[in-house]
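Long-time lurker. I teach an intro course on protein structure, and each term I like to show students one example going from raw sequence to a predicted 3D structure in token notation. This year I'd like something fresh instead of my usual example. Would anyone be willing to generate the tokens for the chain below so I can use it in lecture? Attribution to the forum is fine with me.
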Amino acid sequence: MYLHLGKGRVVNTGAIVGIFDLDNSSQSHITRKYLAMAEKAGQVINAAEDIPKSFVVCREDGKTAVYLSQMAASTLLRRWDSGIM
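-- Reply from a regular --
Happy to contribute to a lecture. Here you go:
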């Protein structure tokens, strides 16, 4: 199954490591450092047409990708749980 993150970007739900609220999780210096390192490594993919509200960490075939999404983490989780992808 696949989850639509916005801007035409979909990810395989089996590859999702976590879905995180950007406002709450970015208060931690550890999360900010992780996102900065992912950005420098070229792992961040912007799937937001507006200000991102969440980020989704995926790992597939030994590669990590961090997707920024304009959708709230709660919306993405609800879609995943309900099967509305």
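Some talking points for your students: Residues 29-40 form the longest helix (12 residues). The chain has a mean pLDDT of 94.
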